[in-house]
Amino acid sequence: MTTNTELLDEFFAAGKIHVQRGALFARVPHPMPADFDFHRVEGMLLGLATGELIP
What we know:
mainly alpha
């Protein structure tokens, strides 16, 4: 299984991502707090996707 980091490396190597690769891409994010509400994020992403479908 390909990890997200490996996939990102492939995109950069293939020239599919046209940004300068800086230190941001090497940082490992902190774990989310135990009480983080992922359902809220899922709802926002669903709303964004739905809005993009409506002309």
